[in-house]
Amino acid sequence: NAGVTQTPKFQVLKTGQSMTLQCAQDMNHEYMSWYRQDPGMGLRLIHYSVGAGITDQGEVPNGYNVSRSTTEDFPLRLLSAAPSQTSVYFCASLGQGAHEQYFGPGTRLTVT
Amino acid sequence: GEDVEQSLFLSVREGDSSVINCTYTDSSSTYLYWYKQEPGAGLQLLTYIFSNMDMKQDQRLTVLLNKKDKHLSLRIADTQTGDSAIYFCAESPFSGGYNKLIFGAGTRLAVHP
User: Fold this and answer.
1) Which residues from A are below 8 Å from B102, CB to CB?
2) Residue B86: pLDDT above 90?
3) CB contact under 8 A, A42 and B40
4) DSSP letter string over B27-77?
């Protein structure tokens, strides 16, 4: 199993550009989440999904969209990037009834 | 509101014990977690404790939970250089469904010879 994979590893965007961060898991997990990590702060939940076709907002959803058309994939879209979205983004997945969230290696995004 | 607080930095000598502390605010939290993050990597679950337990031991790791004071600690015995990392405390407020995690800011553990 590859676990949770994320692409790209690094990305630089200009203000106003759009892009999609990709996340995939091969563990057949129902739950998937996107977090952002900023210096001096813990991870904050952006959006999450409890299954294909079902998504919900987390703590900091503004400026981000998600969709979950398959169990495996959970892309995060930035519609119009802003410098405040400069961060490291982590995707995670969790099996139903389990406790261990599996995290991807992260995407480091810089918006200039 | 929900909040998790940790001290930001801890330095210990190799072979000593490390104790990382955490306080949380949501008394309804059912599970509390410790995650480890090595440089350039995602988070890895170290251990977790159910809220009706006081202590959990797993090899070199001991977790202590004081529900009255909402205080959680992680003790690492015989700390090694490979333990150098950022350690995150997280709580899982009861939601009846998906267990959203509320993370602390992380404690950076530096182990020196």
Assistant:
1) 42
2) yes
3) no
4) TT--EEEEEEE-TTS-EEEEEEEETT-SEEEETTEEEEEETTTTEEEEEES
**CA separation for the pair A20, A79 (Å, rounded):** 8
Q: Which residue has the tokens 């072979």?
A: B15
Taking the Cβ of residue A90 and every Cβ of chain B, the question of whether any pair is shorter than 8 Å is answered with: yes
Sign of CA dihedral B89, B5, B61, A97: negative
Interchain proximity A50–B45, CB inside 8 Å: no
Q: In chain A, pLDDT over 90 holds for what percent of residues? A: 87
Distance, CA of B29 to CA of B50 (rounded, Å) = 9
pLDDT of res. B98: 64
Residue B12 DSSP label: E
Q: Do B42 and A50 make contact, defined as CB atoms within 8 angstroms?
A: no
